[in-house]
Structures are given as structure tokens and as C-alpha cells.
Amino acid sequence: MNVIYDENMSLERKLEILSDAAKYDVACTSSGVDRKGTPGSMGNSIAAGICHSFSSDGRCISLLKILFTNECIFDCKYCLNRASNDIVRASFTPEEVCSLTMEFYRRNYIEGLFLSSGVLNSPNYTMELICQTLKMLREVYHFNGYIHCKAIPGADPTLVEMTGWYADRMSVNLELPTTEGLRTLAPHKTRKTILRPMKQIQLGRDEMAGKSAYQVTQEALSGSNFYGIKQNNNRNLPKNNSIHETKNNSLIQLPQKYSGGLQTQEESENINIIARNSSASFGLVKPPSVNRGFVPAGQSTQMIIGATPESDYEIISVAEALYQKFDLKRVFYSAYISLNQDSLLPALPDGPPLLREHRLYQADWLLRFYGFQASELLSKERPNFNVFLDPKCNWALGNLGQFPVEINKADYFTLLRVPGIGVKSAQRIVKARQLANLKFDDLKKIGVVLKRALYFITCNGKMLYPVKVEENYITNQLISLKEKLPLGIDGSNSYKQLSLFDDVKFSSMNGIMNVRSMSL
Amino acid sequence: MITKKIFMCEDSVDGIFTAIYDAWDSRYGHDNVRIQVQGEEMELELFSEYIDVGPDEEKIRKVARSIKEKISEEAFDMVCKAAWSHEKNKGDVIYRFLILGFHIGSKVINLHSNDTVIKMFNMNRNVFYETHHFLGFIRFTESKNHILFSKINPKNDILRLIAPHFSDRLNNENFIIYDEKRKSAIVHRSGYPWIFTYANELDVDKLSNLSPEEEEFRALWQTFFDTIGIEERKNYRLQRNNLPKRFRSNMVEFNTQD
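Output (C-alpha cells, whole complex):
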């Protein structure tokens, strides 16, 4: 390691280096826990999260996102701080981190601290530094705001547990979706050293009984009450309904056991094995005197998208397995940004694959809030999301037999599957139709995007106007409605990036191929 | 033709509640009365009688109690937030909402297909979003006497909605949040509950006498802010969409750039 190190480096310079080095980590929301302030300490926490500013890339700044040090004995190919890079190295002291956090917080610049780190000397040494800093911030500086920190892969479970009592959220980054990818690009990390602390944190949290959105959705799907919405008329639809209506019954299936749903997904198998075999090593450490709970906001992880040739199917299958087996609150997807020249890394002449990243987030939402399974959205034969259509439209077009659904009768989760109906409008429909039969006009006011939904719904047995329920026709119609993509994501540009990997196929059974050749 | 009666009231929950009481009590017919909040420029209507209404404690209490008892606490909350909205015709929308609410009860807030209810929801949403924005976008500067001071220019009257959050979070600090447009403020003393006050006499200049550390931490924050954006993902349109310019004048990280 070629270390350039300046003993007298100013705090400002350190902050510059160590925030620069931390900025690629996206698993950094400030959400997940509500905690009131207490006299004698500073801070509270809001479960919904608060954005304090937005940086030049348009992303939310919520936490003081820094590395403790950018020195690192690991040599992950994609990482700016890898051991083999010739860069200026710097380290904070615990006091400096505490002082920055406190002074930024009281001026309302930030919602809390996000502390990550390069691996200095050893995983244990680094974990101990992080733990010591958090302890000082909580017990000497009396900080009661939000703290997110990393569990260092390979660190001793005792240290991970001790840190967990001071943090609100912890994360271990999976980095790459497959073991193979890790082996190639992150030779010092293994699936095992990443998943072990994840499992440990999950077991520790079991006592806390905090539930992730994914779990809440799954429970609601299996029949329990959801959002206090009474669903009197769901699932037991009147017998004289049309064929489509009866099919609704099969639309929402109870989640299959994961192993049943995914045939030979080696990677998810791999995760399952570790999930089963890891034994609890919790309870080694006594909680601190001010007990805020053990990682009360749960854990998250991040996967880098586009550095290795995994398909979208592999990526969301892994995400689903993480939600199921490790009870993660969030999986984040980070479009790979080319920082290092390396023959093992792809060149991305058109910039990071932002549209692909966006599609994965959309699919992630469908898993967590809409009750979809990864295997419904993609398959081995169709392993990647459609560039031109969002994952839900894409699914609906492939399952036209389940439509149209009757707005005044379909249950909550069936409504959620209609393109143009989101969580809010589905909730409103279920509430409003108890007062009056809903008409298309009402749907517009409720916030349903009718121009998208009209192909998939009936109101009182009638569609908005006669529509040919035919895949190619509807596909064409939906594509011609411009999808509202996040600002700055240019579909055509990202298409080129995606095509770097030759296993990516945009065509599908949905006849997208024709449309594309027409529009290009 | 019937002359319309327009009840004019001050721009506050108190004013609007009193006007609602008087309008109702006039028995002039709901279609023939209107509530108008003072302060905003308005077009005078012909064939209308304008009636000035001053706040009346008894009437305010009665209206508040009726809403809570005959509709619901939730509806009362919605009405208050709507009264803090910047919408010009909020007084009359609230009046129409209450007519409906007294008629059908607590269900009124689920009547998503009714135009008045939709207007109430939109005002509430606007107030809610702005409140939430300010929880994050407020910036405190530390003055020489270690008081944290923040100046804001919100569209809606949100001071009382953000006060509980900051009093809880910064319970060990002395702070003032000052609404420059309405000349009102939240004042919080360490360890005490917050108070709302009109602050015409507030000496803003004195508070802008900064503590010795203030400049240092501003500079550090600026450094952090400038560094944390990812060059390869630069997206000023998205930034402007998420953080509209109207918020930026009081945010330190934008002061040197704009």
C-alpha cells in the first residue's frame, strides 16, 4: 500500500477526503425508527426520515456520510479506496467525528451520522474504532439522533453486537449479487463474511420485533388486517361474475415457500444455506445504560449494478431472498460508476446504468409493498426488465388473462396489481367505495392514472370505452404514453449501456421487439 | 336577485371559526353566504354585502366543539391545517366542508369524489409537505450568546406545526424560528415548552451577531455539501425539483453559490 499521509491535515481537508470516499454508498436513508427526545441529550428520530438538503446529483442528503478512514487493506477492484490505489489517505479521530456530528446536527444540517470505513489494520481493529466512536457520541456527547454504521465483514461477533447497541441501523454491503462476482472483484470479501454479521444482526433484532415493509405486506397477503381496511367483499366474489373476475381468486396466491418458487437459483440457495446454518451468537454483550434497543431501525444492504454480468432476475431474486431470510429493511441498488481502470471491470462510456437501477428500484417496491414475487416479474427465459415499460406494466401485459378487474369489487392486493393504481389510490378506492359505487370520474379524482389503468379495469362491469384486450395493441398504447422517468434518466442512452452484456434481451413475449424497431 | 353576504375575517383559525359561526347563524342560506379571509387582494363583488367579523372566543369554542363532536377529531385537525394554508379561498372551502361534515358525520373525510373534500385534502397535503420540507431545510445559525436562530419564508403558516419537532429534538437548546413574512416566531428556552409569539419587535440584527465557531462549521458544511455529490450523476434539474429555489435563500450551503 502506497500511503500518502499528512500528520497535520486540517479537519476540513479530512472531511473533504472522507466524505468524497463515502459518497458512493447509497444505503443511507435516515428512516425506520421513531424516538422522542430526552432531557439532557440532543436529538430524536422520525421513522419517515427527513431530507436536509439535495446534492448536485439531485440525491437526498440526510446523514453526515463519512468514512472513519479511507485506509484499506482490502483490494476490491471497483473501490476508490482499494489498497492498490495511490490516493491521499486520512483518518478521523473519534472526537472529530463526534464534534462534527453534534455541531451539524444542532444547526439542522443533518439528521444524524452515517459512519462507514475502509479496513484499517484488520476488520476487528476497524470495527472497534467504529464502536468506540459511536459509544463516545452516545455516552459522552449525549447524542440521541440517528446513527447508521457499517458492520465490517470479518469482524468478531462481539464487536458487531456491541456496536449494534449504539446504532439505529447497521448495514453490511453485499456489493455483488453472486459469489462469483465477489470472488473476481472483491477478493478479500466472501459471501460468508458478509452474510454472517447480517444473520447476527437479524437474530439480535428478533427480540425487538420491528417489521420490514416486506414482512408487513406478506402478512397482509396471508389474510391479516391491513391498514385497518376491512375487506368485506374481497376474495369471495359473487358467483355470477365474468371469467376474469373468478380468475381474480388465483391472482393473489399465498406466498409459496421460497425454495418452491425458484427452481435452481444457485445464488439464493447459497443464501438459504447460510441463513439456516448460522447459529445465534447473540447475548454476549450487556446493553448500555441508556438502552435505545439493538439496531432498532433494522439493517440494509447495497448491491452494485452493472460491474458484473448478473441479470436483473438474479439481482431481484437475491434481494427477495435477503428480505425473506435476513429480514432486511431495504436493499439498495447502486449503478456502477467507473472509478478505477481495471481489465476486470466493464467500461461504461455512456455513464452509469441509471435506467437499469431505476427499474430495479421499481421492482423492489413491487416486492416490498405490492406482494409480487421475483419469479412473477422475471424468469430465466426473460431475465431482464423492459427498457420501455415499468416492471408492473410489463407483468400485467404478460398476464392479461387476469384482467380486467372490477374496481368496486376487487380486493386491495388485486387493485394494487393494476397499472396506474398505486398504494395510495388503492387504499382510497377501498375506503371510498364503501360510501358509494365508484365511477371512472371518481377514479380520476382519487388519483388513478386512468390512461394507464383503463385497459385493465371495469367500473360497474363496463370498461371506460371498448378496448381490444390484446397484448400487442395494449403494449403499443402503453409505450406511447410517455412513462414519467426520474429527471435525468434518458431511456435511449441507458439502452446502450445495458446492451454491453450480451445476455440482456429487451424483447419479450410481449411483442416489444416490433415496437422498438418501429420507433428507432 | 338575492344579495350575497360575504363574511370577512382575519387570516387565522380564530377569524375563520368566528366567520363560520356568524355565517351559519345568519340563516341566510348556505348558497347566499361566503367566507373571505382578509389580507389577500380580492375582487369586490357587485350585489354583495360585506360584513366584517372580529374574533369572538365564545363562537370559536363552539365551532371547535361542534367539529370534534359532530364530525371527528381528525376532521378538526384537517380544518386547522387548512386554515393555515396559503390558499385564498380556504375560509369558504372550510365552510362548505363543514356543511357536508355536519350532514354526514365522520365519513366526510373518506368522500374522495367530492370536490370540496378534494380541495380540503389538497390544502392539507400542501401544508403537510411544506411542514415536512421545513423540518429538513431549516438552518440554524449560532449567535454570540449561543442562541440558535433560523429565519424562514414559508408559503403556508407552518410555524406551529414545526415547533413540536424542534422543541423535542433540541430540548437542551435555546432557539428562535422566525417567519419573516408573517413577523411571527417560535421561541424555545432550554428545558421549557415552546411559545408562539408575534415578533414585530424582534431584533434580527442582534441575532446575526455570530458566535466564533459559526463560520468554521458553516465552512465545514459547505465542504461536505460540495464533495458529496457524484460528478458522474450530476443532475441539477433533479436537485431543483427536490429542493426548489424558494427554500434556498436561507440555507447556508446555497448562499455562496447563488
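Chain A has two domains: 4-208+260-305, 375-519.
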